[in-house]
Amino acid sequence: MPAATPDTALWQELGWQPSPEQLQQLLQLQEELRSWNSRVNLTRLVEGDDFWIAQVFDSLWPLRQLLNEQAEAPLRCIDVGTGGGFPGLAVAIALPQAQLTLVDSVGRKTQAVQAMASALGLAERVHLRCERVELTGRHGHCRGQFDLAMARAVAAAPVVAEYLVPLLKPGGQALLYRGQWTATDQRDLERALQLLKAELVRSEQRELPAGRGQRTALFVATNAPCPKGYPRAVGIPSKFPLGQSGEAH
Hints:
By secondary structure, the chain is α/β, with parallel strands linked by helices. The protein has one domain (18-226): Vaccinia Virus protein VP39 (Rossmann fold, 3-Layer(aba) Sandwich). The protein has helices spanning 8-14, 20-37, 48-60, 64-67, 88-94, 107-119, 133-136, 157-164, 183-196, 236-239, and strands at 75-80, 98-104, 126-130, 146-152, 168-178, 198-207, 214-222. A seven-stranded mixed beta sheet has the order 3-2-1-4-5-7-6, sandwiched between helices. Strand 6 (198-207) and strand 7 form a beta hairpin. The longest helix has 18 residues, at 20-37.
């Protein structure tokens, strides 16, 4: 299938314009997804607006301020539950100064995403970890090490917060990608964040182009060191979300 690039209006709406090299990498990423999808079920969002809006635009819009900064210091980022490589690979392309760690517990997916990163020339900056994120959050190379920890379409917000907050270094932020967002959702998240010694510092909502639905970006920062008991053992955060009845401390 011939490559189709989005028109400039999409980038104008994003507030960031990829360089010719970055645009070529995004097109190549689409080709890699097509190829790998025939062998491993990575994502159904590969063609047209499914790729450019529901994958690329949705991955990047919460980061547009960062995209337009000329940061000199390398940025350490982690994408938890990367699946088919989003937002991690899109962020790696858009932020050339970033070092990315992508985590997923499904070996077939991590192998495919590592191969895609290599094909895109990103192997030196993108590293895959095949494990449950509860283990990542306790590993010495990961706990308290990241400027930005992200998770998109992974689990309920209190669960995602327990995954991400232990990974943040002082001054770092967690980015939770959500769809619709209610006052009840926010109360649940804020109760969980109290236990994690963190707080919601910013939230943004927008409608995706082409009627692709509402999206919410939540930015969380620590206000004290994350207690050593978090994240809890594998499977416990999702079974007993923090801040709700039946939680395990």
